[in-house]
Specification:
five-stranded mixed beta sheet; 8% strand; single chain; alpha+beta; globular
Length: 389
């Protein structure tokens, strides 16, 4: 077992003399559920607070610092309070959704489930909304029930009438809670075409799990881990919270053969390999020795990903622009496809930076979605699913 950073006097001395290096190490400590060892340096402490918030682990940092660094912990207390309030509201809302969608197949994933079942401080994982998955065949019935219960669509007309039908829409409860109502686990049509993540099969495997004082429908463990890795990769795997999610689920995994099979079925093997490799390197996540080989990761791709992670270590990031994010977002089925996507995305990024001075125009006068836009969206989803309204 690797010794926790900051556990020796020499480590503390290095941190005091190199404050900017102290912060990434402290963020890793937080994600390892270890009290971080920060030098008595105001600038470093301010940077730590900023970085903990960027990586969305500030509530966990608050908990770990309460006794050792009460003043620093106090700065992060509002983050802890927000996480608690969000999770309480989500638990109540999901109980209401369970009643509204009774008889339909649905499941929640990410935020509330990870907060309660895959976080070092249960209930204190930061998230902003609730993700709910329904079958595309039952999306119309789900939206009808939400509307009849006083929920409102939060999308604009142009979003629902998008020719590249999004995999989710957004609803707001009467109490103001936002949910992302998915019929697909992948939102963008262009990305969805590159993977095979079948909604109905996922819902066939759903499980009932405790949440707050009640229970809710959730993804089974294998689906949850593979999706967490795929979602993390597609968003860049550039925040430590995403790496921590994968770490916590991986530690509870007993059937790695099922994980490998599901990753191959979805075309998510490279995404799983990239994210779990970062978790292993940063958080000592225990993984099977043959995992890379079974996922089909080539030696060439692993050389590239390791070099990228050394060049742009995730804990040191404080912005969304990095080569580490580019690498993860390029994850595609197969090592060759991933390396090709890295090159294409890199060239596109250069072009965007060169054209930075050209202002992009936003659609003027965007209108809230109306019944016509909602109907157009539902018909598009039903066409995709091969069903009639």
């Amino acid at each position: 077992m690797t010794k926790s950073r900051g556990s020796s006097a020499s480590s503390g001395t290095r941190r005091a003399t190199r404050p900017r290096r102290a912060v990434p190490a402290a963020i890793v400590d937080v994600c390892r559920n270890t009290t971080p060892d920060l030098p008595a340096h105001d600038a470093t402490r301010r940077l730590f607070v900023e970085t903990a918030r960027h990586h969305r682990v500030s509530p966990l940092a608050h908990v770990l610092l309460r006794e050792a660094e009460p003043e620093l912990a106090a700065e992060l207390k509002p983050d802890r309070d927000r996480a608690m309030a969000t999770h309480l509201s989500a638990s109540i809302t999901l109980d209401a959704i369970d009643r509204l969608l009774d008889g339909l197949r649905w499941a929640t994933f990410k935020g509330p489930i990870l907060s309660e079942h895959a976080h070092p401080a249960p209930g204190l994982r930061l998230y902003n909304d609730i993700d709910v998955l329904v079958s595309p065949r039952e999306l119309r019935a789900a939206t009808t029930r939400l509307a009849e219960a006083g929920w409102t669509v939060a999308d604009y007309r142009d979003m629902l009438r998008n020719a590249a039908t999004p995999g989710e829409m957004h609803w707001v409860s009467p109490s103001g809670i936002l949910i992302d109502l998915h019929w697909s686990m992948i939102n963008m049509a262009s990305t969805r075409r590159q993977f095979s993540v079948p909604t109905d099969e996922i819902l066939d495997r759903r499980i009932s799990t405790d949440l707050g004082l009640s229970s809710t429908w959730a993804l089974n463990h294998t689906d949850a881990l593979v999706h967490v890795c795929l979602h993390a990769a597609l968003t860049g795997a550039h925040r430590m919270l995403l790496i921590l999610d994968a770490d916590q689920l991986a530690r509870k995994t007993t059937d790695w053969d099922a994980v490998v099979t599901r990753a191959h079925d979805w075309g998510a093997e490279t995404a799983v390999a990239i994210v779990l490799a970062r978790a292993s390197a940063l958080l000592n996540t225990p993984l099977p020795d043959r995992l890379d080989r079974e996922l089909g990761v080539s030696a060439g791709l692993r050389v590239v990903t390791n070099a990228v992670d050394r060049l742009a270590p995730v804990p040191a990031l404080r912005s969304s622009t990095s080569v580490a994010r580019l690498m993860a977002r390029s994850a595609r089925p197969g090592s060759g496809g991933t390396l090709s996507a890295v090159g294409a995305k890199g060239m596109r990024g250069v072009a965007e930076r060169l054209g930075k001075g050209q202002r992009r125009t936003q659609p003027a006068g965007r209108e809230p979605a109306d019944d016509e836009a909602l109907e157009a969206y539902l018909r598009a989803v039903e066409t995709h699913a091969g069903v009639s309204p």
